[in-house]
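Recap from last week: sequence in, structure out.
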Amino acid sequence: GFSDSSRTIEWEEVPTKLGTIAINDLSFAPTNPRTYSVLDAESGDPQQEEIFEELLKRDHVRKLIRDIGAKGLLDPIWVIDESFVVFEGNSRLAAVRELNRTSKNRVPTIKCEIFPKDITDNQVFYLLARYHLDGKTKWDKYEQAGLLYRREKENPGNLDKDIATLGISPKTAR
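Predicted structure tokens:
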């Protein structure tokens, strides 16, 4: 079963659920900044297998494979309800899928925090930016730029507001 929880996003409590979901029911986000530019997602969403293979090439995913294989998964991945698209934790999902493919210790489910299906793009942007631009797991400069670029492309004219909301300097953002 799932337990009720919540996450504060820009001072608003957003209800979430905590539980486990079958790994095969989850989808990688085609707009993941770690794969978006390499797979040219602008010309159409890349296939799930393409995203998986691209993530497996990354050093941080190979490190996650070793770490999760030795110690297990620490943090739940973030998923949008009903679609089960992972918007945070694509690298961890790739690592667990690879472990399932190559290890005797297969894990059929993964810990997830499920966000409402009506979560807004602004809320997703805010969460990702807080975690990866100035928080827990910093993306490299190219990945950070990709997030802000896509955000500006989808919501033109808000870059200065987004930068202020995130508390990063305009020089860092540009």
